[in-house]
Design the sequence.
């Protein structure tokens, strides 16, 4: 853990309170700063953000992650649950909030939700692959961390080759969701998926 | 601390996460369950709730409270800041949310805000008075706790008699805010102020 983490600088109690205030401020910010959008859409965005954080979102992923620490038989389902809830859910919220505020219909929102969930999971699969295939110098952070920590990872549970196939499948599945949208407008999202899939560090 | 506090039963980490999820759920609930109210008013209510929790509200009070622990020269201003932010702000949010959702105009909302802030501070002043004037049996909890903890309290800082006068003044100031409202509709709020002022435990 870097030594400038706020819990180390200001203490655990103040760090938790800072988190609480930032969490509340996210809702305050959306409620007050969003302009040019009907209030009903802003409320829908607030609902999406709250859901992504709460007991069905980030918190669920974190609790299962904590409960899995030091457990040797973490399976693929559990690993995917953790990654979908800890990582993918925040990408999902980012993408879905844009879709909702932009006035996407239900079908469009759900396609973009699936897109985001795929690239969120993809991010983790690629992270796991890089951890065992790259040097620390190439990564810009310590390589092999997961092995040392005996963490459940995709390469550990399904092997390196199958992990790469899974990553490829997730990237395709993500981009499939974008086929019905204007290709010019979707281009940045395609580029984002490819960036996450093919990043080297 | 009772032994069934969630941090003791489930661990500090899970207790913090439970708090985060409940915090997010409060916004999810308001955004989805409120019916018969224009979305713009629901957004105004979300803004009020978020502000009461964040860095200008509850979190500010809690941080100053933490910073004041073990400090011998806590003054009246600092004590009032802590109580206004830790206690009164939540009564304020409860009252103001009702006023906002009910369609109160700005002046009405501000009067009710002041009412709530007064009874919130009143609650703490009375709490401090009861701690030094009642027995544990009368309170239903340990009396004299504040003295043992060497906590700054109103009786300690201004004496018992002046604390009683301050409590009376806060009760009057609270009820003054209600004078412009329909007296039948305001009656429960008057009763609430008196209940807080004259409670014996």
Sequence:
């Amino acid at each position: 853990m870097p030594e400038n983490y706020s819990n180390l600088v200001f203490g655990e109690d103040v760090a938790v309170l800072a988190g609480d205030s930032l969490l509340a401020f996210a809702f305050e910010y959306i409620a007050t700063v969003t302009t040019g959008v009907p209030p009903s859409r802003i409320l829908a965005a607030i609902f999406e953000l709250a859901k992504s954080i709460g007991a069905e979102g980030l918190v669920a992923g974190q609790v299962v992650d904590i409960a899995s620490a030091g457990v040797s038989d973490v399976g693929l389902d559990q690993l995917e649950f953790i990654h979908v809830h800890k990582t993918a859910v925040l990408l999902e919220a980012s993408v879905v909030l844009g879709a909702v505020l932009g006035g996407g219909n239900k079908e469009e929102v759900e396609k973009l939700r699936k897109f985001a969930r795929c690239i969120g999971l993809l991010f983790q699969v690629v992270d796991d692959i890089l951890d065992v295939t790259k040097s620390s110098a190439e990564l810009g952070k310590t390589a092999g961390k997961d092995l040392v920590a005996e963490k459940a990872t995709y390469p550990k549970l399904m092997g390196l080759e199958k992990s790469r196939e899974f990553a490829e499948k997730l990237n395709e599945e993500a981009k499939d969701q974008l086929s019905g949208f204007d290709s010019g407008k979707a281009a940045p999202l395609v580029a984002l998926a490819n960036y996450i899939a093919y990043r080297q560090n």
